[in-house]
Each structure stands twice: as structure tokens, then as C-alpha cells.
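User: Hi! I'm working on a homework problem where we have to compare a predicted structure to a textbook description. Could you give me the structure for the chain below?
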Amino acid sequence: MSPNKWICLHPPNAAKLAMSLDNRGLAYGDGFFTTMGVIDGQILWVDYHQQRLISHATALQLQLDSDALLTILKMHAKQLQQGMLKLIVTRAAQEVRGYGYTPNTGGSACEVWLKSSPMSIATAQSLSLPDGQLIPLQPTATAICLSSQIACLPPPLAGLKSLNRLDNVLASGELHAIKAKALEDNIKPSIGEGLLRDMSGHWVEGTMSNVFYQLSDSRLLESPSSKTNATVNANKDNANKGNTDKDKANYLTQGQWYTPSMAQSGVAGVMRQVIINGLSTSKNPVIMRSLQDEDLPHLSQLFFCNALRGIMPMTSLALLSGEVVSFEAI
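Assistant: Happy to help. Predicted C-alpha cells:
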């Protein structure tokens, strides 16, 4: 397989060299995608990616043989050795005109496209979860609250990594414009990610990642509805420690981590689920909790994550008001 070239994996033996302009993914966003990191010929978090294939195909009523597809993906990963595999699944062309699809096998048939991209995946530093999983750790950066908002979606679309990503496109454009302005002002931008609200006003995720956060004890005591009374004492010595090897090793297990629900907006990412599962048997399992405006000044730690980059810890968050909330670097 030529690097950075799209190939059609399904239908089998299809002599397709390019995606048709009539493809439903292009026309209607009728499909989903997943992006997989590859190191030493192995797909990272492969079981989680397979679960995404199954859950997304079910939600969109697509017929997809995830086992057979995974066998093919592993072969391409072995050829790639190090880099990224991007998979796009779209509904096959339909006999009916417009948005609709036929209520039969033809309506659930799909096309599967793959691109293999050689690239370096940083693994110099990592954090260990209680279940033994090692997660890549990126250098610290800063974050900023963006004015762009993402859509609230009905079940079963909320949480899906569908091809409808225009809200993220606009948000990413806003973030890049902020970075470009900083360069024009001769300021070296250290902004690693932007925090996004959904249309209900809750802060949900980054432009390309999920978010986890911790709160100060005072905020927890003010918010009994957050169901965190049992974790207040555990949070007294949370992640505001010195920059020691022990602190790095314990970063994920110190204090109580929260992450917003994906029940009405956002993408339920692979790395998000890896972290939730990894901490599920720890002293402080991750709690699903909405992140609202009044919480932001009380944040004590914040990181973003995705399946390619692992954990991206933040040292500060710039609010829409201009106020900056700072965190201790790990």
C-alpha cells in the first residue's frame, strides 16, 4: 500500500481508485471514521477501536464484519510499522433518491476506505494506569476556552465519531487563528488545545480530544449535586505536587478526575475510555460530571487526550473573560 494514498477495502475486489462524488459520506456525512496509531507494527488500543467499529456500525445501521476488517487492518499495520491508519466507513450508494436508504441488506451495505500514513508517534514518556496500561505523555502546554460551540445531538448520534464534524472544523479554525495572531505579535504560542462548549453551554471536549479535570476542595464542598462528597478528603492532596518522578507516575491516580458525559454532544474517544476503564478499580474511579462556567476558576488540574497523542497535560487555561487559571506542571 502506497503511503498517504486511500484504498478501498470493501466491497472486496472492488476496482476503485477514487471515492465517487456520489459517495454518501461526502454528500451527507453518512458514515464514521476512526484514527489508529501504529507502533512496531501493532495497532494501539486495538480492542477499543474494534468496539468503536461495532458500536458505530450498529448505531448507523451498517453491516460491517469487524473481525474480518480487523484482520486486514493488522496486516496494514505490520507493513506500516510506525504511523497512523485512518479508516472511513460510509453507507453504500442507494437506489432511493436523497437522504433515505432502503430497509434491506442494500441499505446497510457500506464502503470502507483506508489511508496509511508513516509518522512519528512520541513515546519517550508515559504514564501507567493501575491496570498496567501505559499511556504516552506529551510535553505540557496551555489551553484556551474557545467561543465556537459544538452541536447537541440526539441518541444514537451523540458520542459517535461521525463524518459530520463541521463544528470541530470551525473550532479548530478559531484555535489556529489565535495561534497565528500570537506569532504575528512575536509571541511563541504554547497553546496546545482549545476547550469547547456545546449548545447547552456545558464545556465538553477539545477540538481534537477529550478532557479530564480536577476541582479544588472548596468547589467540591459547594457542589453536593456533583456526587463527590466521598472524594473530598482524597482530593486534599491532589495533583498540585512537585515535578518528581513519583508525581509523574501517580499523576492519574492522585485525586479525583472528572470527565464530561458524551450523552448529548462530543465524541466518546478511544483514549477517554482507556483511562476510564484503567481507573475503574482504583481508589478514585473517574466520575462523569458536567463542566460549567462556574467550575472553571476552581479547576486544579486539566488534561486533554486522544488515541494518537495520549495524555496532553495543561499548565493553564485562559477563560473567555481573559482570566487565566494556572495548574502545577507534572
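For your comparison, note the following. The radius of gyration is 21 Å. The first helix runs from residue 24 to 28. Good luck with the assignment!
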